[in-house]
Amino acid sequence: MALWGGRFEKGVDAFTQEFGASLEVDKAMASQDIAGSRAHARMLAEQGIISGEDQAAIDEGLQRIAQRIEDGSFIWDVNDEDVHMAVEGELTREIGTPGARLHTGRSRNDQVACDLRLLAKDLCNHLIQGNIALRRVLLDAAEKNLDVVMPGYTHLQHAQPVLLGHHLLAYFWMFSRDFTRLVAAQTAADANPLGAAALAGTTYPLDRKRTSKLLGFSRTIPNSMDAVSDRDYLLDLEYACSVSMMHLSRLCEEIVLWSTTEFGFITLSDSYATGSSIMPQKKNPDFAELTRGKTGRVYGDLIALLTTMKSLPLAYNKDLQECKEGPLDAAHTLSDCMEIAAGMIETMTVHPDVMLAQAKTGFTAATDVADYLAKKGMPFRDAHRVVGELVLYCEKHGKGLEDLTLEEFQAASPLFEADIVKDLDPAGIANARVTYGGTGHDAVVEQLAEARALLEKESEKPE
Ligand code: ARG
């Protein structure tokens, strides 16, 4: 018979019991559950609600159970609906009456909310470390490849030459925003619901601020009904994971493209590629593809919880039991994918010659040639048309802009002089863009320093 046996004459059948249980997923928050119970019991004793002896027995019993859960010797009983009942039931079997006093002034509703908030904080912390590690790899790769010239794209068409260091740093900043979102999710989780009991608070003189302190929560939730029914912090976590997966997916899409024969910009390390069971020549970027693919399931986790939460009346509803797998899955998926992406970037071989050769094709100098004319006094719109006609001329004659003779340039505009050649060189074009945030070498050096300083500051955070 369940813990509420008094009110019932018979229990549910085995299938119904299994259907209603959350024991399996709850195992992920067993240590948080025990921490919450230890803090609750300590506060109960400090408030004179239970005796010091009872508290000591509870505390020792819970520590023994924690140890057994940790080393795998704890026997989970499928008849327990959730981790709260499993732990409390075992404690009471072991220490008797003191164990039966543990749930004084508490409900599983504030208990599960407390466990989930502690878990969410831990998950965020882990993800923040992974985020920092990935950004460090990106920074190092950007520094190493600072001056590699490649085509920059818009519409996936050659646009203007950029430095690979600059391109990689764009991802650094995306993941920096993810860091901020993860910290925000952690802050959202960082509030204590304990003491809300079932929904209305309790008549026992609980000290809610004390359990906040004991559990390391920086705030205490001011409304008991909100405390037991809020799962926004899990949505925040899943949203942070979703955006970060979207960034990883974009990065991985580039890795997939760049490692094609058509691009040939990079070669992935053998440790981050797979072969084919039939085609002996294949080297596939499976792990980049898989990361791209896993983005979908993380979005799914977010949408699932948003959908579960809609229309829930206050306060606790059993629907809320469905809110655990998603955040755990999203966090584990993001954590794995960040590690894979960092490994791929760290070990890939860059082919600067191929990138540079590509940067020379597709008339990537056209803007600078137009700027050349504009700087000599021609209105930019006119310069744009002149160079557009030059490009058309080149296409018709199978030439690049760099193949044109000075006479051909001057036929388009008498403003062209011999110094036009310096505006045709991809490295020169990229490096001339030294306004703050531009792709020029000096600007990227400045950007790298800014990125490095930010990362060092964020790495120091005592999360
Ligand atoms: N297993 C439940 C959950 O995970 C714990 C809270 C149950 N509370 C209740 N009144 N049924 O949400």
What does this structure look like?
By secondary structure, the chain is mainly alpha-helical. The chain has 3 domains: 5-104, Fumarase/aspartase (N-terminal domain) (Fumarase C, Chain B, domain 1); 112-205 and 227-355, Up-down Bundle (Fumarase C, Chain A, domain 2); 359-459, Ribonucleotide Reductase Protein R1, domain 1, CATH 1.10.40. The protein contains 19 helices and 6 strands. It has helices spanning 14-20, 23-26, 30-46, 52-71, 83-95, 97-101, 108-144, 164-189, 208-215, 224-229, 232-258, 286-309, 325-347, 352-360, 366-375, 380-397, 406-412, 426-431, 441-460; strands at 149-154, 157-163, 191-192, 219-220, 266-267, 349-350. The strands form 3 sheets. A two-stranded antiparallel sheet has the order 1-2. The chain has a two-stranded parallel ribbon with strand order 3-4. A hairpin with a 2-residue loop joins β1 (149-154) and β2. α3 crosses α7. It is elongated. The model has no long low-confidence stretch (mean pLDDT 97). It binds arginine. Arginine binds at residues 22, 81-82, 108-109, 112, 316, 318, 320-321.
